[in-house]
Design brief:
heterodimer, B: alpha/beta, six-stranded mixed sheet, globular, nucleotide-binding (chain B), ABC_transporter-like_ATP-bd (chain B), transport (chain B), ATP binding (chain B), ATP hydrolysis activity (chain B)
Chain lengths: 283, 252
């Protein structure tokens, strides 16, 4: 008699991701988030009905109506303050992107200098911490005096606000470059410049990216401050106008527009990070 | 001192603050020799290697490689205890970087060729963390071989590996060394490894490290299998002699 053994199914190598998130973990998280969202919505709806004071707490339906109104032209009025909601948001996003880009570029440059030139670090570190401690609105007045009330002071504000997180993260990562890897490069004949470009900077990338995400966050939270003066079009300007006329539903709509687009941009940055820095947490 | 000497260490001492780690040591390494420095932990053998590599400067005395003061990255390939590969590069990218620094043309053939010399195939596209610790150390050796340096310096390169991988790598290194014939200095605390790999074994005393025993290893370098070599009565005798020299000096 012969017995045939069925071939054993190939054992799947346990991946670290599977260990962290067991089967169905993703769906469970999605359901959990959905339930939380619905609960929040119900709480909002309930509070709005109980309070019965739309200037204090506008109902979800009122905010939804404003979304429609500000996104369309009605009775010859285009959106809100003459611009559609998407245009307000677009102008603000443009400011955030340009401001962050300048701030990140400057922060990188300053960070690398601070991380490599020790006397410069001694001199400049307190200055960076000083600027970091200032609320952006505080130095905005100075920019208004210097640059007027158009686009320039707004971009300056966002750039200066976005710079310190990147500079600090870059300086720390460059300064604390692992001697083992730098030595390995030098043993292969790398010059000082080559070892900075090929070892110190790539090694600092994960920290730099964290700094970039922080910088974009700071630029985001500063854009409303930057748009308090002559901010229309702009989501901050829209909120400020709505506040003046006690249009709470428009204010809440503006908050949603900023918050949701912020979530989206952070998700994009996270995806970029996973693509660009696959070695994060593995070395 | 003759011009054929690859390394000369002349009355060298090295101190970290008040602690003298090494010396005084006099040592001459002729070209083509495979010198193994062996001793207990903390005897300064790694420091001596770093002096020869040019990463440390002697407190007194002089170190010369090929007649000049050693400078890191010039004239000596280095393998450390940890692979020290760059995780943002692929395996092949790590080798390519070494070729670039050496001013040599970077081609896929050259990279594959170097990896093949340390027994690695089809790994050039892999990420560093996707290969085993033993394979990573092979890549580190291939990287050090990428530059046609007259010197190869190895600082306990197999210490962090499991016994099986370690023996395989020892065997492969012995063959690579025999085929390239370049002067090598290998640091270890394993007596067996020292006698197996070296054409000469120098035993260092505990801190401050000085030379306790300087022993030529007259065992066949080629045409002998690892097991066969380890089975030779001469191998056992040399191992006993080196082992004694270390134990005599160590107070436990």
């Amino acid at each position: 008699m012969t017995t045939t053994l069925a071939p054993a199914p190939p054992a799947a190598p346990p991946s670290p991701k599977a260990a962290l998130a067991p089967e169905g973990g993703l769906r469970r998280r999605l359901v959990l988030r959905l339930v939380a969202l619905v609960a929040l919505y119900l709480l909002w709806e309930l509070t709005a009905r109980v309070m019965h004071n739309p200037t204090f707490i506008p109902s979800p339906a009122a905010v939804w109506d404003q979304l429609i109104t500000t996104s369309t032209t009605h009775d010859g009025v285009r959106g809100y303050s003459g611009h559609l909601l998407i245009e307000h948001l677009g102008v603000s996003l443009r400011r955030i992107v340009i401001g962050s880009a300048i701030g990140v570029a400057g922060g990188l440059l300053i960070g690398v200098l601070l991380g490599t030139v020790s006397w410069l670090r001694v001199v400049a570190e307190p200055v960076i911490t000083f600027v970091r401690a200032l609320p952006p609105l505080a130095y905005f007045s100075l920019f208004i005096i210097w640059f007027g009330i158009d686009e320039t002071p707004k971009l300056w504000l966002l750039s200066i606000a976005a710079l310190p997180p990147v500079a600090v993260a870059t300086a720390a990562a460059v300064h604390n470059a692992p001697t083992g890897l730098v030595e390995a490069a030098r043993a292969l004949g790398a010059s000082r410049r080559q070892s900075i470009r090929d070892v110190v900077l790539p090694n600092a990338l994960p920290e730099i990216f964290t700094g970039v995400r922080l910088a974009v966050g700071v630029a985001y939270s500063s854009v409303v401050a930057a748009e308090t003066i002559n901010g229309v079009p702009g989501i901050g300007g829209m909120i400020r106008d709505a506040q003046r006329y006690s249009q709470t539903d428009v204010v809440v709509l503006g908050l949603f527009a900023i918050g949701l687009s912020g979530l989206l941009i952070d998700a994009l940055l996270l995806t970029a990070e996973n693509r660009l820095i696959p070695w994060r947490g593995r070395a | 001192m003759s011009s054929a000497d690859a390394i000369t260490v002349d009355a060298v001492t090295h101190s970290y603050g008040d602690v003298t780690a090494v010396g005084p040591i006099d040592l001459t390494v002729p070209q083509g020799e495979f010198l193994v420095l062996v001793g207990a932990s903390g005897c300064g053998k790694s420091t001596l290697l770093r002096l020869i590599a040019g990463f440390e400067q002697p407190t007194s005395g002089t170190v010369r490689t090929a007649g000049t003061a050693p400078v890191p990255g010039r004239g000596a390939g280095l393998v450390f205890q940890q692979p020290r590969l760059f995780p943002w590069k692929t395996v092949g990218g790590n080798i390519a970087l070494a070729l670039k620094y050496a001013g040599q043309p970077v081609t896929a053939e050259r990279v594959d060729d170097l990896l093949a010399r340390v027994g690695l195939h089809d790994v050039a596209h892999r990420r560093v963390w996707q290969i085993s610790g033993g394979q990573q150390q092979r890549v580190a050796i291939a990287r050090a071989l990428a530059v046609d340096n007259p010197l190869l310096l190895l600082d306990e390169p197999f210490a962090a590996l499991d016994a099986l991988t370690r023996e395989k790598l020892q065997d492969d290194l012995r063959q690579v060394s025999a085929s390239t014939g370049r002067t090598s200095v290998f640091v270890t605390h394993s007596v067996d490894e020292a006698v197996f790999l070296g054409s000469r074994v120098v035993v260092l005393t505990p801190r401050p490290g000085t030379i306790a025993l300087d022993l030529p290893i007259d065992l066949p370098r080629t045409g002998i299998a690892a097991d066969e070599l380890r089975g030779l009565p001469e191998f056992a005798a040399l191992r006993a002699e080196v082992g004694h020299a270390i134990r005599d000096r160590v107070t436990v």
